[in-house]
Amino acid sequence: MEAQFLDPDNWTTLAMLLAPGFLILGIRARFKEGAVPDLKDRAVSYAAVSAVYYAALRPLFEVPGAVALPGWLWAFLYYFVVPCVIGFIVVISDQKEWFYRQANRFGLKLTHHMPAAWDYAFSNLKQGNFLLVRLGDGTEYAGRMGAGSFASSNGGERDLYLEEVWVVRDDGPWEKVQPERGVLLCGKDIQVVEIFD
Question: FRET partner for 146 with CA separation of 20 to 30 A, picked from 14, 49, 62, 138?
């Protein structure tokens, strides 16, 4: 039994069975905030998504009288190209929240795919938004979320790096600190984040 499991043909078959789920969920994970599940949970997800993929697409790839493709091209399309296209469609659907809007039209309330409000707020932030961050000790930092800024999506530590630090004037507009500098704020110290357009 063990020798049969270690047979390279069995590993190839397993890889082909899980490939669509691996590609679809792998592409989605690259664009999704939040913690990555452990390997055991991912393997079950790969198998489930692959099963749905095969059930839905196998009939489309075996249409009687259709154009005959060379075996290598058929396999390349079936195991790689189509799952990648579906993965990108899922990413676009997630980011545009199409599925949630359709569910709401039918009165269904779904759990959001973003694990925390932090992830949701920063994923929808436009480049150039200004932030006012208050720490637990009352210290405030103002800054601009530019291309070089970063908000961590790690659930354990919500660090925030602002590439530009600004001074907030009570009687006038905000002014960029000179000389220019950035600031790294540790998530455990952050109390409140205000976002301005």
Answer: 138
